[in-house]
Design brief:
Helices cover 6% and strands 51% of the residues. By secondary structure, it is mainly beta. It is globular, with a radius of gyration of 26 Å.
């Protein structure tokens, strides 16, 4: 019976009878129980969702509240075209429409393929998406497919935009919310949030938002011992064992100001800052137990960032002019256990014999990592738009961004002799002290022509120039290696804490992407469109001297979509079918000595269909949801090496992944359904709501041998339930997330190369069943 029910659910997803949408700042639509209008800015104009010929899923502020969304992971599960590889707060890799190779996500690896924006400004850092706390948010927009005309380099496969609520002039309002919750098998969490909108005369207003959240831990670091065969000693984790040790504390604020300068000009400066302190690790080892693992050194992560942004909007003659600029600074401090690497290399290769003190006596070979990452990112965009009501209209602009990453990773062994250590750093067996810089410049333009009142042709181009550079030090001390690390240095230090410099490399390239779209407005409520678009991701350098730079990879997208309303506006059904070609895609792996290697791997083809619907059955009953079917596979063999010019070799006797191999990360099927009933009880508004989210199985790696070691990520489904009342200005909600405590596998990984560390595979789960109570008031 359960199998039949699952089949029925997935069939309904593919037929478009499951639903997902959200209300942005909505206007009341005509027609009784008609679905509300959704206004978005995906094309950098205010437009009705139903008039925009792009595959977009929008979760509005009201919908975000209804779904108990508070962070990135909460809303991603309701976006069927989006997949993630989460490893902890602020460091999840994000993918869209199956454009994923499953690379290792190292600091010197490829740039992300999905752009993340906070309002007008990109916030995609090199190693992962910022975990922006979701409160007082107008909407989240997910633009699937290449966005290479109006968006930049990291929007190869799609773009996710988090749009904040802006100050409202002449309005005083505010709210506060408090929550307590408990996690099954874990601890208790709590939060406090609030905002206030303050008018300041007739031309100015400020909006201030603040939050503090304590997320309960649910992973146990259990008491354990480990014996090294070569060294012969036994270690324990008595000093670090702890139940529910992966708790997180998040504190942050956002302040924005809106100033009207006459009738035509407005400036909106905004400052947002957040600090997140996470303890422990967010995965478990199934061989040790459910939600349990054994770590032998301290583990934590402190992630602190702020973004200062400025948006200027105005008119010059008949043209709209917008400047959007920002400066982002992010500092991350982490400590990580690396004992699996030590143990398995000792077990397989006798590495424990190499680590001695100054007298030549063996020492405990357990490694651990202390790391700091400092990111900066500045972006500037200026664009000009012609009037939207003209039969021929355009958007054109200039874009510049520069992002830096100062990398410091200190691999330590307690008691290690000074002759084996990095010069000036006793106990450091390996050091990375590097500076990475990625620059992107672009000029873009898009023109739309209403051939007839019902038929519109749109074309766009984006010309770009991208540069990637890396300089500094990486490797062992000269007493351990005679050819790498310090032995390979060619000049003095140019980065902090490095003994010398052994890498200064850069690469530069230019090119263009395009978009061509034909839209047919069949009726006022029915529109179809076809799109041919491309997206790219810049190339970069390999720090290993023997490897050439890797080249840009390009994604070509062919898409047919529809935007429709039915039943006098009570039913909205949108969707798209697509076919994509991914050329010479970049793939990052751990190579010799645990060094990341990035190579252009092979070609892939991806096709699928995505759909979202909202249906107001009556004034009281609403059903919404969405679904996606994605088939992503290699169209050439992946052999694992390139020719002298860096082009991937696809003709080999024993490919690591043959043509037809399914790409990793993305499930073939993903969907969700939410059913909501609104009622009135004793003059109080109330609701009852249930949500289902599910997906089919997937793999974490592209290579067949490695995916067999890691194992398949089984499909899963979860159910959420909530009930609430609104007595006057107050609101009260009781919710049950992951009601049946389903254990989902979101990511599977090992601490070092799978062939070595495959004896300890770690699984990142979803959060266990969480029961929470929320109380809030608006004024």
């Amino acid at each position: 019976m359960l199998a039949k029910n699952r089949t029925a659910i997935w069939t309904s997803v593919l037929l478009g009878t499951t639903m997902l949408t959200g209300v942005a700042y909505a206007q009341e639509a005509p027609g009784g129980n008609a679905v509300e209008e959704v206004i978005i800015t995906a094309q950098k104009r205010d437009e009705n969702l139903q008039d925009v010929p792009v595959s977009i899923q929008a979760l509005g502020g009201q919908k975000l509240e209804e779904l108990q969304v508070s962070d990135f992971g909460d809303f991603v599960k309701f976006l069927p075209s989006v997949s993630t590889q989460p490893v902890g707060p602020g460091f999840g890799s994000v993918y869209m429409r199956g454009v994923a190779s499953g690379g290792d996500g190292n600091h010197s690896g490829s740039l992300p393929s999905v752009g993340i924006y906070l309002d007008e400004q990109p916030i995609t850092t090199i190693q992962g998406a910022l975990d922006v706390h979701v409160y007082d948010i107008a909407r989240v927009e997910a633009l699937a497919g290449p966005q290479g005309t109006l968006y930049g380099a990291s929007s190869q496969a799609g773009t996710i935009r988090i749009i904040t609520n802006k100050p409202e002039i002449g309005v005083f309002e505010g709210a506060f919310d408090a929550e307590v919750n408990t996690v099954s098998g874990g601890d208790q969490g709590y939060s406090g949030e609030g905002y206030v909108n303050i008018p300041m005369g007739e031309t100015m207003a400020a909006r201030i938002v603040g939050w503090y959240v304590h997320d309960a831990g649910y992973i146990d670091n259990v008491p354990s011992t480990r014996t090294y065969p070569t060294w012969g000693g036994t270690i324990n984790n008595d000093d670090f064992a702890e139940e529910n040790y992966n708790d997180v504390d998040t504190i942050g604020a956002r302040a924005s100001l809106k100033v009207d300068l006459g009738e035509n000009w407005t400036i909106t400066p905004q400052l947002m800052a957040q600090r997140q302190e996470a303890g422990g690790n967010f995965s478990y080892n199934p061989l040790i137990g459910d939600l349990a693992q054994a770590r032998y050194r301290p583990e934590y992560g402190n992630d602190e960032w702020y973004q200062a942004a400025l948006t200027v909007e105005g008119k010059i003659g008949m043209f709209d002019v917008v400047y959007a600029g920002s400066y982002l600074k992010r500092d991350v401090e982490t400590a990580s256990d690396y004992s699996d690497y030590s143990f398995f290399y000792d077990t397989l290769f006798g590495y424990g014999a190499y680590w001695t003190d100054n007298l030549g006596n063996p020492v405990d070979p357990t490694q651990y990592i202390n790391a700091t990452d400092h990111y900066t990112r500045q972006t500037h965009e200026i664009r000009v738009s012609s009037p939207a009501d003209q039969p021929i209209r355009f958007v054109t602009g200039l874009f510049y961004q520069d992002q830096t990453h100062d990398i410091f990773q200190d691999y330590q062994i307690d008691g290690l002799g000074s002759t084996l250590s990095i010069t000036g750093k006793p106990g450091t067996i390996w050091l990375t002290s590097q500076q990475r810089d990625d620059t992107d410049k672009a000029v873009f333009g898009e023109v739309s022509w209403d051939i007839t009142p019902a038929l519109t042709l749109t074309g766009g181009l984006r010309f770009f120039e991208a540069e990637n550079g890396l300089r500094g030090f990486f490797g062992f001390g000269s007493g351990y290696s005679g050819s790498t690390g310090e032995a390979a240095c060619f000049q003095g230090p140019i980065t902090p804490q490095a003994p010398c410099t052994n890498v200064i490399k850069s690469t530069k390239e230019d090119g263009n992407t395009h978009r061509l779209n034909l839209t047919w407005k069949i009726t006022e409520d029915h529109m179809i469109y076809g799109t041919w678009s491309t997206g790219y991701r810049p190339g970069g350098i390999n720090r290993r001297a023997t490897l050439p730079p890797y080249k840009s990879d390009f994604l070509t997208n062919y898409e047919f979509g529809w935007k429709t309303s039915w039943l006098n506006g009570a039913l909205r059904w949108n969707g798209a079918a697509f076919f994509e070609e991914w050329e010479d895609f970049q793939f990052s792996i751990l190579g010799a000595s645990g060094l990341t290697e990035i190579k252009n791997a092979a070609n892939a083809e991806i096709y699928g269909i995505e759909t979202d619907i909202v249906w107001r059955l009556t004034d009281d009953w609403t059903v919404s949801g969405g679904g996606a079917y994605t088939n992503a596979e290699l169209s050439d063999n992946y052999c694992g090496f390139t020719d002298a010019k860096g082009n991937p070799v696809t003709n080999c006797a024993s490919p690591l992944s043959p043509s037809g191999t399914q790409l990793p990360v993305t499930p073939k099927l993903k969907g969700n359904v939410t059913v909501r009933y609104d009622f009135v009880l004793a003059d109080m508004d109330g609701f009852v709501q249930g949500s289902w989210v599910g997906q089919s199985s997937s793999y974490a790696d592209l290579r067949l041998v490695e995916r067999d070691i890691l194992g398949k990520q089984d499909g899963w489904q979860t159910f959420d339930f909530a009930i609430g009342l609104k007595p006057g200005d107050w609101n009260l909600q009781l919710y049950f997330n992951n009601l049946f405590d389903e254990r989902a596998s979101l990511f599977r990984t090992t601490q070092c190369a799978e062939a070595v560390c495959g004896g300890a595979v770690y699984v990142t789960p979803n959060q266990p069943r969480t029961i929470g109570l929320k109380v809030g008031r608006k004024f």
